[in-house]
Amino acid sequence: MAEKRRSGPVMSDPKAAKCETDHEFLSQSGVSALLRGALLKLVESRSDDPIGFLAEHFGHLSSEVDDGSAENLTVSRSLWHLSLSHHSQRSAFNNNVRVAYELLTQSAPRRRSAGGVRGVVYTEVLRCLCSEGGLSGASAAPLLQRIQCHDYEAVPFELFRQGVLTCSVFADYIRKSQCLYAAVARAPDRPAERALCQAVLATLQEALETADGADVARYLEASAKISPAKLAQAMAEARPPSQQQEGPTMDAQEFEDAAAALFIARVRKVT
Amino acid sequence: MSVEPVSCTIKTPVALQIGDTVSDLSRPGVYITDITLAEPVNIQEISFKNYYTAYLTVRVQQREDGSVKWVTCLRNHCLMANPHAEAGSHDYFSIYRQQMSAKPDNVMTVRLILRQPSSEWLNFNIEEINIYPCVKEDTEWDVPAWLSTLTPVETSLDLNGLPDPETVSSSIQQMWALTEIMQASQNAASIGRFDVDGSYDVKLLSFT
């Protein structure tokens, strides 16, 4: 009876029913929320390969749903989350750390680990982060020694976040120190002079050791110590222009280790 | 800086007139006010409220090594630009140490000579006189050493053969900033390795 009153042809009837079904289908399955989440993640990470990123994202989601994953898969998934944003994108980075932490705490088989991520998993995550950041095992070892935890200990979220951030920042720091060495060496094939390297590292150390005080005063004082004028003065004193012959040199690895030592000395040991 | 005015006794103004004060009908054009101070003071500032005084002269009696002498510190300081008009007639004034021709140190008495040549006004005076002493600046603002070396000395550094300071400085600044980020993110989060139910047990110290 109702069909006869419709003005349009009978053909429109199945189409209208189909549209309703489509809309209903999308809202019931929650696909719109899924797509929204995927697009947000993509925008946050600004990946160079959007399709690959989306494929990985949905792959991880589907394996999460399966919930029968082995521990190393969980570690790799949490590492993928941690790699999504740079530590300078503070809120996105914190979100990703939180997601990774949740993943790792939920992955504990049988019993839920009280208090956080298991120490062995935490250490594994940090080690992988360092190697992904381009650090060799030897460079990362002193840092890991300071911040890693025993296998049986449970790592709370704050410590987890701090450790992850420290590793990411350290990777950037080592990259910067390599740029610095290149700048001091002036030529890519020649090693840098030892006196210059030591002078440059000494200025950095002096800036880092600026006395405690109000933050603003400390920053101003430190930045005054590493201004170009101060550095020019330090370098000129270390190697007077009148000195023609080349002094002893320092190779890149030694410079990197010395710079790393300055950073690691300031990392708080975990207790 | 808030300085308390010194306590002083202000005597009533005495008019200088030719002739008899009582019988003479013309109004006086000069008043003299003496201010006695309780103890010798180095004056930093004299502040007062004017009431139709046109010109002010300040003389101080200084005590130096036993002898007293009068010194003129300020001669005919103009308070009202036009003595017949209202401008400056009710203003607040401050006379500073720097304006005085002689240093007002070890002052026992201050003599203010007020002049008003205009016959417009029935009366003239100055009120609310306060004398402020010199305050010894105990808290000298310590200029930090690094602040004084900010502007580089213009010695031409021979940078032949040296790396470019701008590039080096830029890298170092970024390294410093990264270290600061790491330090700032460090908080008191601990894993409680040595905690036993929240307290520190000596027997559990491990040799790590």
Topology (elements, then pairings):
The complex is a heterodimer of chains A (271) and B (208).
Chain A: H1 2-5, H2 12-29, H3 31-45, H4 50-66, H5 71-82, H6 90-106, E1 117-118, H7 119-132, H8 137-147, E2 154-155, H9 157-185, E3 192-193, H10 194-208, H11 215-225, H12 228-238, E4 249-250, H13 252-264
Helix pairs in contact in A: 5-6, 5-7, 6-9, 7-9, 8-13, 9-13, 10-11, 10-12
Chain B: E1 8-10, E2 14-16, E3 30-41, E4 43-51, E5 55-64, E6 67-78, E7 92-96, E8 107-115, E9 125-133, H1 145-148, H2 165-185, E10 195-196, E11 199-200
Antiparallel strand pairs in B: 1-3, 2-3, 3-8, 4-7, 4-9, 5-6, 5-8, 10-11
Q: Keywords for this structure?
A:
heterodimer; A: 271 residues; mainly alpha; two-stranded antiparallel ribbon; 13 helices; 4 strands; B: 208 residues; mainly beta; six-stranded antiparallel sheet; three-stranded antiparallel sheet; 2 helices; 11 strands
Structure write-up:
- The complex is a heterodimer of chains A (271) and B (208).
- Chain A is elongated.
- Chain A is mainly alpha-helical and 271 residues long.
- In chain A, the strands form 2 sheets. Chain A has a two-stranded antiparallel sheet. Chain A has a two-stranded antiparallel sheet with strand order 3-4.
- Chain A starts with a helix and ends in a 7-residue tail after the last helix.
- Chain A has helices at 2-5, 12-29, 31-45, 50-66, 71-82, 90-106, 119-132, 137-147, 157-185, 194-208, 215-225, 228-238, 252-264, and strands at 117-118, 154-155, 192-193, 249-250.
- Chain B contains 2 helices and 11 strands, in the order βββββββββααββ.
- In chain B, strands 1, 2, 3, 5, 6 and 8 form a 6-stranded antiparallel β-sheet that branches. Chain B has a 3-stranded antiparallel β-sheet with strand order 7-4-9, with no helix packed on it.
- In chain B, a hairpin with a 2-residue loop joins strand 10 and strand 11 (199-200).
- The radius of gyration of chain B is 34 Å and the shape is elongated.
- Chain B starts with 7 loop residues before the first strand and ends in an 8-residue tail after the last strand.
- The chains are: A mainly alpha (271), B mainly beta (208).
- Chains A and B meet through strand 2, helix 9, helix 10, helix 11 and helix 12 of A and helix 2 of B.
